Amino acid sequence: MYAVTLEEFGEPDVMRWSEVPDLPEPGPGEVSIDVVAAGVNRADLLQRKGFYPPPPGASETLGLECSGVIAAVGEGVRDHRPGDRVCALLSGGGYAERVVVPATQVLPVPEGLDLAAAAALPEVAATVWSNLVMRAGLHAGQTLLIHGGGSGIGTHAIQVAVSRGARVAVTAGSQLKLDRCKELGASIPINYRDEDFVAVLGEFGGADIILDNMGAAYLQRNVDALAEDGQLCIIGMQGGVNGELNVAGLLGKRGTIHATNLRRRPATGRSSKAEIIAEVRRHLWPLVAEGTVAPIVHAELPVTEAAEAHRLLDSPETVGKVILRIRES
Ligand SMILES: NC(=O)c1ccc[n+]([C@@H]2O[C@H](COP(=O)([O-])OP(=O)(O)OC[C@H]3O[C@@H](n4cnc5c(N)ncnc54)[C@H](OP(=O)(O)O)[C@@H]3O)[C@@H](O)[C@H]2O)c1
Fold this sequence. Notes:
alpha/beta, Rossmann fold, 2 domains, seven-stranded mixed sheet, ADH-like_C, Putative PIG3 family NAD(P)H quinone oxidoreductase, oxidoreductase activity, acting on NAD(P)H, oxidoreductase, ADH-like_N
């Protein structure tokens, strides 16, 4: 089969579409998928540069999510059959013609949803749902601040939060991104280049929940922007890993800081990918099926142009996800 390989760690052009050994047949509880499209994530850019090695046992090939058609099912798999249109959360290996994945990480693609576009969903759906709903309990009437509102994660989080009746504030670095966030339902747009998000949130009584991609750089200001009993969910480290915090401020407002990583969760058991995907399927998937929450795809490129896709994700003009087309559906 063919897959994207890395000649070495480095710039986007180190990626090659090359012949690699075929994968084994799916084992008990696993399925194999003929991949139609793979989502591109910020984590892939880091892995390509050598900064984000896959967890033990995961494929070395890039790609944390895909869509496609079930090729074969292993022993004990009841939920899926060969020929089913699906998308899947992966620990790696999505930039390839075929993947083998635990059946518990596979979701059916609702009728009417474009199969390639569905590759844009599993990673954002699992990340957003596990943080905002399962951890922080986001509900109607709350104010949510999403940093990087125009990102793949941000554009999905806006839709989920609006569907739950929350008021959504977003930060972004350009008017183009803020306008798109408003179209998706955000009502408090903040350009982080010339506005202070702490001051803006202060006018609205603070944020009940913050979804943060910046880590250390925003740590103190995020706590400052929280409302009483507010919760900060850190999912990214784009602003570094070592921060300083005045703990008194957090105590005073009875704040909570969560920090989670999806890829390193176990496949099954407590806090696992299986647990999250089951919740996503039960509660979020009906919203996807009815079109309330949709994949936001900025661009679809052939997998042979993976380098261009990585450059595109890094560009300030990109709103939402970039996906790689592996084969026609
Ligand atoms: N923990 C987990 O399990 C998990 C899972 C998935 C993703 N993530 C993380 O979630 C984040 C988003 O992922 P993605 O794949 O959706 O990334 P993405 O589409 O590449 O988006 C990254 C975003 O960061 C924004 N940004 C840059 N500087 C900023 C600043 N100072 N303040 C606010 N936003 C800023 C950029 O927007 P502007 O152009 O507006 O600056 C861009 O939209 C990443 O940090 C990623 O590592 C974590």
